[in-house]
Description:
The complex is a heterodimer. By secondary structure, chain A is α/β, with parallel strands linked by helices. Among the domains of chain A are: 1-157, Rossmann fold (3-Layer(aba) Sandwich); 338-395, Luciferase, domain 3, CATH 2.30.38.10; 399-500, ANL, C-terminal domain (GMP Synthetase, Chain A, domain 3). Chain A contains 16 helices and 26 strands. In chain A, helix 1 packs parallel to helix 8 (196-208) and helix 4 crosses helix 5. Chain A is globular and about 75 Å long. The model of chain A has no long low-confidence stretch (mean pLDDT 93). Chain B has one domain (6-83). Chain B is 0% helix and 31% strand. In chain B, the strands form 2 sheets. Chain B has a 5-stranded antiparallel sheet, with no helix packed on it. In chain B, strands 4-3-7-8 form a 4-stranded antiparallel sheet, with no helix packed on it. The model of chain B has no long low-confidence stretch (mean pLDDT 91). The chains are: A alpha/beta, B mainly beta. Chain A binds chain B through residues 1, 5, 8-9, 12-13, 141-143, 173-175, 177-180, 187, 197, 200-201, 204, 208, 234, 236, 262, 264, 266, 286, 288, 290, 298-299, 302, 304-305, 330-331, and chain B through 3-4, 17, 19, 54-57, 68, 70-71, 89-96.
Amino acid sequence: xxxxxxxxxxxxAAPYRIGLVCDGKSWTYGDLLAAARGAFELxxxxxxxxxxxxDESSEAAVIALFGAAxxxxxxxxxxxxxxxxxxxxxxxxxxxxxxxxxxxxxxxxGGDQGHTIYTREMFTLKAQESWAEGEERxxxxxxxxxxxxxxxxxxxxxxxxxxxxxxLLGYILGxxxxxxxxxxDAALVVVPPYHIAGISALLSSIYALRRIVVLPAxxxxxxxxxxxxxxxxxxxxxxxxxxxxxxxxxxxAKADVSSLRxxxxxxxxxxxxxxxxxxxxxxxxxxxxxxxxxxxxxxIALLGPDDHREALASSDPKIRARLTSLGKxxxxxxxxxxxxxxxALPQGEAGEIYVRGEQVSGEYKGGSALDAxxxxxxxxxxxxxxxxxxxxSGRADDVIVRGGENISPGEIENLLLANPAIADACAVxxxxxxxxxxxxxxxxxxxxHEQPSKDEIRQLIRARLRSSRLPDKIIFVKxxxxxxxxxLLRREVRFKFESLV
Amino acid sequence: MKPGTRLKSAACDTEVIxxxxxxxxxxxxxxxxxxxxxxxxxMPSADHANGTLMGKRYVDAxxxxxxxxxxxxxxxxxxxxxxxxxxxxxxxxxxD
Lengths: 501, 96
């Protein structure tokens, strides 16, 4: 089965309904399918083995995604924010490809790699011209790879994660009801196309027949303006975006957001302060925390709107804490917590999060990370409480092993973040002759507060945590390094400590 | 028959994609479905004429069969004469 089925069904059921709006131009489901079929012709003609996109979100992402699917070659959106050298290496790994986007940059970085290069405008135009109503073609049956995404590489060099047609269809057919949206519904898509959430947003909106409104480059003012102007009903944001939207509202930005029924977020840790404010600034909106990974075709667990409101209103600390939880596994996947040897842990104990299900690919170019029973080790650490809510404690790779004791950085960071003088905190492993690994603690002082002394910080930790959690080295920095999706780059924090030695 | 196969009705416009199946005969409008287009028009039999709905998934009681309707028609779906029912999953909040 081919993911193109999703667009074919939309075009069959509602050919003249608007499926996508970008830069003021509207595309019906019929238009999008015709262009995807035209893109198939361009791809066949080029002999490309991949279709890559080096561009912000637009109609070209939909046309390229489904055109590649029809042609049976992987669609590989690339992160245009990467440095030239990194991007050139990635382009080399997918040559020969049909590459759409920043023509000057693609030519400069991969002009000698055998690619076929189009600007967004040229690709969209040619795709529309290349297929005529009634033309019959043998399209790919969808047995293979639909999407290849390079992981963000916060801990190592980017890996090529592979999503098969069966994974993505398993996710969409299992979680989205066909044609579930009202004709007036609209989803605001602002996640970049190279992020899994950007891909699943396109697939699920098209299958639900929910009009997609694309905001190619995020700014809180444009986002609020579009919600108001286009009467947006659904939106997905990463935590940094929600933080900036809240800041903008705090600074007086005005917009009518009453149409916004559902707002989902994910892709990084949501600060408690931000979600609490968001719940009060958007009283009519249902919030959903969606937890998922590239390797799992997006969402595998969610904390729904009722959970959010119940947690906010509760005086029970256990229920309030659910605002920081990932929620529960969706019905179509199983989630387990295991120890370092892969043995299932009793409920309540912290270990590594494992997941199994049709949507879980767990596959990279050159090998699968699934175990013999089909379970995928996420490398995320967490635990499940007695009511089934999953809590994340960090990346398994981020655990600090100090003198044989496993220390989750989140434990120390959360304690310090509760202190008004600390705006941000990051604990990482640093080399220690005595302990194997020691704790390095990088802190950002909140504006308007005095910088606490290192002794005061140690006192704070000693009062609440075991002595093994005391940092071996403390530094104060202006800000912590995050990638554009709001992921803390712990590797870079480790480099900071290394450069001090 | 294998998952992913597209089947066409011999009695109406219905087309389905097989999500899950076993060895029984998959029918629409009381007639066996096939991969080829129907050659002549036949009416759905009266007791298999409730119609199919676009995008609905149809399942049997044992969970051995699951069909996704990708083109609706006037016939209704059955396996070895036993009608299939729509699968009504509890809707999840939109998460992306």
